[in-house]
Amino acid sequence: MRLSIFQHLVSMAYKTQITTTHFFLLLIINSASSQQILNTESTSNQATTAECNNRWIHIRNLPSRFNLDLLTNCSEYPLFDDFCPYLANHGLGQKTHIKSRSWYRTDPLLLELIFHRRILEYPCLTNDPNVANAVFLPYYAAIDSLRYLYGPDVNSSFQHGMELFEFLQYDEPGIWERHVGHDHFLVMARPAWDFSQPLDNDPPIWGTSFLELPEFYNVTALVPEGRAWPWQEHAVPYPTSFHPSNLACLEAWIQRVKTSRRTALMLFAGGGGISATPNIRRSIRTECENSSINSNSSSFDVLKSNGIYSKTCHTVDCSNGICEHDPIRYMRPMLQATFCLQPPGDTPSRRSTFDAITAGCIPVFFEELSAKMQYGWHLPEEKYAEFSVFIPKEEVVFKGLKILDVLMGIPRREVTRMRQSVLELIPRVTYRRHGSSLGLRTTKDAFDMAIDGTLQRIKDKIANLIEG
Ligand SMILES: *[C@@H]1O[C@H](CO)[C@@H](O)[C@H](O)[C@H]1NC(C)=O
Ligand SMILES: *[C@@H]1O[C@H](CO)[C@@H](O)[C@H](O)[C@H]1NC(C)=O
Ligand SMILES: *[C@@H]1O[C@H](CO)[C@@H](O)[C@H](O)[C@H]1NC(C)=O
Ligand SMILES: *[C@@H]1O[C@H](CO)[C@@H](O)[C@H](O)[C@H]1NC(C)=O
Ligand SMILES: *[C@@H]1O[C@H](CO)[C@@H](O)[C@H](O)[C@H]1NC(C)=O
């Protein structure tokens, strides 16, 4: 058994010329299904049966064409960047530099791998689907979607997922039938928008139809961004580049964030805003460019003469994706800013929201769909006023409201309180490194919160199903 998996991987590695790092990634994920990781994890975690009550998860055994095989084509999507470099460290990417302990060049597309690796060390795994409270599908849905979104299968995008559905119907069909899919969940590491093309769009406009297929209505999909009226999906944080492996690393970072000197009032790290049509990014750009001339300088002068800020607005130009795998470009400025602007871009949500929280920079939202309507499991809806600022984009774009004036109007004491609330959110939006210390595992991270939310959601769904 071992040998054949090994041979398979070696031949695959040759065929596709994947590098050693990727090769080991595949090997380790595969060996996990052969119990090795499971055994060490469950003994080190010492989860008792009582603790696992109502929390058992069964990982559905899927053929490698639904996950690992998809990684071997990581450099072959013509309209999509080569993502091979980001497969390292089970999808966390390479470390930002050799001595870095917690920082990686993480690509959010690889959340499917990150999740897969983490669930292998979940303490309440069961091999018996009949006692499971939830069934995880280790399908790399967003990676598989690339061939429809950017590849040769663009005209059959309504078929995305059908092969998986057929497999679930003929291979051990009892697992699906037990709750007709209501207890199944998976991760789809792109905004739901990319998977919700209506089935009758002819020709297709954008996206696959995975979330529009009645076959998958019962399955819970974890996505980084849900639709405005989500049905089966629920949003979980985008992974940032910060993946500590022990409590000391996490605490040292939070301490650094707490004591960082914040010399800029507000920061925008991103691109866009160069088109002529009015939009929020354009308003931010002009307001920042003009901030020295145009801001309500009398109130800013007060802040400046108190030695609080040396700059009103700092922009980090992230056009053309230059920041994506280079967290140093934006994390340093974020540590030095009080407020971080989170305008919608192609879609309402941004990974940058989570980078900002990680840096203790108070997020400023311009629409509810950017976060408040999304991340209820991780960022409690009733606490938004405590950790973020909301400025409706219409007020800025069409009514001339100045962001600077709003932010400068917030009293210092209030700012300090808000930053404290942001600091408290850091652990729950961080995906800690797999195989981390037991001490760190006692703090719930983004993965743990997502599992809690999923189990609760599935429990409610099944209760409804039984009530009829
Ligand atoms: C990978 O790409 C090759 C052609 O480039 C294709 O034949 C193969 O089916 C692809 N494999 C997967 C798993 O998508
Ligand atoms: C998809 O369909 C369109 C319109 O029928 C056609 O122009 C295009 O070549 C097709 N693309 C592929 C990859 O088959
Ligand atoms: C989804 O669940 C409903 C009951 O809630 C059931 O009637 C339907 O057949 C299920 N769909 C699939 C594809 O199993
Ligand atoms: C920026 O300054 C220019 C020149 O003073 C002015 O025309 C423009 O309206 C200003 N833009 C904003 C958004 O204040
Ligand atoms: C500047 O700020 C003061 C105090 O916050 C306010 O009363 C005034 O209307 C502002 N002026 C402009 C031009 O925005």
UniProtKB/TrEMBL annotation:
What the entry lists under InterPro entries is as follows: Exostosin, Exostosin_GT47
Does the record carry Glycosyltransferase as a key word?
A: yes
A single GO cellular-component term on record? Golgi membrane
Q: Matching Pfam families, A to Z?
A: Exostosin_GT47 (PF03016)
Q: Topology with regard to the membrane?
A: Single-pass type II membrane protein
At the top level of its lineage, which domain of life is listed? Eukaryota
Subcellular location, record wording: Golgi apparatus membrane
Q: Which UniProt keywords apply?
A: Glycosyltransferase, Golgi apparatus, Signal-anchor, Transferase, Transmembrane
| GO MF term set | glycosyltransferase activity
Show where the Exostosin GT47 domain sits.
52-398
Keyword Manganese attached: no
The family note in this entry says: Belongs to the glycosyltransferase 47 family.
* Protein name stated in the entry: Probable xyloglucan galactosyltransferase GT19
